[in-house]
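FW: tagging you since you asked about this chain on Friday. Here's the raw sequence from the shared folder, copied in full. Didn't touch anything.
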Amino acid sequence: DADAIQAAEVIGAKTIIIAAETNAGADLSKVVAEEIVIDYATATAPTNIKLAKDANITFTKAQTAAVVVDGENATINAKEGFSTSLQVDKNSKIKVDTKDITIASLIGAAGKTISFEGSKNVTITATATNASNIDASALSGKLTISAVATADADIVGSTGVNTIDVSASTGDVSVVTNAAADTVTIAGAAAAKDVAIDLGAGNDTLVL
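HL: got it, structure written out here
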């Protein structure tokens, strides 16, 4: 149970598997392990998981409640999707190398970078809110972002096919894709704001 090691100091563990939680959330900020495995669907209330710096956390089950991962330079291994939301307030990496995943809403923080890595497809079906820096250059699968809602947006697409809609951005916009047949949509760009689009080679579509 996650509550059993709340705020406990654990150093040098290889793998810690957490199979349940009594209350929503877990303070694992003093746990240093090669991998922390969340092997359950989180509680119905929003779940805030605090991690030590550079922690490696794996979600093996589909998450139906809102999940907050609070850890600097965390690596999030997503084996299943997040049907409500995934929030990462610090620089973090999301790895998808087992199956295609869907994140209903990705929530970031201004000035922080959320990076994607792996060979599977990533789909953000609702919005990427405050996710001002998204770097999927290490992702070879498809990246699909339905809407980016943030003041400024700086997005680097995957090496696969990208479908990116940044119409909800109200500030400066920068989007870089690759040689695939990408689609980028930017509508209602704010006046006196900079928009920079590099679609690379390939048969791309730009909607303004």
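FW: The chain has a mean pLDDT of 88.
HL: agreed, and Residues 13 and 135 are 30 Å apart (CA to CA).
FW: great, closing this out.
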